[in-house]
Amino acid sequence: MPNSALQSPPWDVHRLPRADGRTVLVTGGNAGIGYFAAEQLAGTGATVVLGSRDRAKAQAAIASIGARVPGARLRHLPLDLADPASVGTAPQGLGRLGLERLDAVVLNAGIALDHPPRRTGPDGHELMFATNHLGHFALTAHLAPLLRATPGSRIVTTGSFAAKSERLDLADLQSARDYKPKRAYARSKLAQMLFAVELDRRLRAAGSASLSVLVHPGGALDALTPARPPLHTPGTGERLGHLPLGLVVQGKDAAARPAVRAVLDPGVRGGPVLWSPRVFGLRGEPRPEPLWEHLADPATAAWLWEASCELTGHQPQF
Ligand SMILES: NC(=O)c1ccc[n+]([C@@H]2O[C@H](COP(=O)([O-])OP(=O)(O)OC[C@H]3O[C@@H](n4cnc5c(N)ncnc54)[C@H](OP(=O)(O)O)[C@@H]3O)[C@@H](O)[C@H]2O)c1
After folding, report:
1. Which of 50, 211, 267, 281 is deepest in the core (most CB within 10 A)?
2. How far apart are CA 16 and CA 22, in angstroms?
3. Which of 129, 252, 145, 247 is nearest to 194 (CA)?
4. Rounded to two decimals, what is the model's pTM?
């Protein structure tokens, strides 16, 4: 199938275009991939807002980026994605920071729980589904007026390779009957990815100037990630022990690049495409790949959109 969105102009991850005057919100910008996305974006002159539930961690991340990027413009937006009340205050929070435009939001924050029992957030929804999918769905709805008002704005959704072999259980969306943590995580990421695809479809149908861009970071390990003390200080033994894995996966600095490209590259368009690392989708420079087959199923994506509206009480409108 010819897909013009798959044509990728050259992109140098070390020579990013300037983005002075633009504002980008990165959820979970205080740690991991989100931290490195924020650091790389701050280097372009953009104002970067770290959406974080922990003020001390956000301030430490701001100090770390500030020490590396002279003149970085950084702000903290208090944001707990598992808590609908916190998500609902995001527009006012940005207003209090004096921000009147939002050029991009990177929906990056996420949790992956390893062990039973099944946990729920304040509104009773399964915690990974609530944080990773419903929280970002509602956040997009709350931010839609600001994104609509900013020409060419982008909603960048972070998926996962884990979703590639997973399917939603439409009769048990939140694993209430049968909970397996790894599967529930993969399904929450699949839900996010289907949301991004459905949002893209709706934006294009409406002739909107906003873009929904779907990315995934590949495989990213803390042990392969450069130190950012006091946020992240991998021990020498840990680093050396994991070096061979660098043939397959990457550090979180490299894993941030698909999202950074999705925010900045003027060549990125909407359409059925996924931005992911070049080498087996696990490591390497970001490039577009065709949507996985099950992501391109419009019926499931539309069904999930309606279910998410019902569960959150909000609908992203552009
Ligand atoms: N690492 C990988 O190999 C990989 C692969 C595929 C996809 N991903 C995706 O990439 C994204 C980032 O992963 P990562 O490896 O960087 O994870 P990470 O190092 O664990 O960082 C996760 C970030 O999400 C934040 N977060 C968690 N729950 C939150 C909540 N309720 N409200 C607000 N923020 C919350 C965390 O904040 P706190 O510090 O407060 O906990 C932290 O900033 C996730 O969406 C993940 O699913 C990662």
Report:
1. 50
2. 14
3. 129
4. 0.98
* Residue range 209-247, pLDDT digits in tens: 999 999 999 999 999 999 999 999 989 988 898 999 999
Whether 108 lines ligand 1, by a CB cut-off of 6 Å, is yes
Q: Which of 160, 216, 228 to probe ligand 1 with, by most ligand atoms within 8 A of CB? A: 160
What is the DSSP secondary structure assignment for residue 47, as one 8-state letter?
E
Nearest to 159 by CA among 198, 217, 199: 217
Q: Tell me the residue type at 23.
A: T
Classify each residue of 256-273 as buried b or exposed e, where b means 16 or more C-beta atoms within 10 Å of its C-beta: bbbbbbbbbbeebebbbb
Spell 62-100 as b/e; 16+ CB within 10 A means b: bebbeeebeebebbbbbbbbbbbebbbbbbebbeeeebe
Residue of 207, 210, 175, 182 lying closest to 196 (CA atoms): 210
Residue bearing tokens 């702000």: 75
Instruction: Provide the terminal-to-terminal Cα distance of the chain, rounded to the nearest Å.
Output: 29
Map out the domains of the chain with their CATH numbers.
16-312 (3.40.50.720)
With a 6 Å cutoff on the Cβ, whether 110 touches ligand 1 is: yes
User: Given this model, what pLDDT does residue 2 score?
Assistant: 52
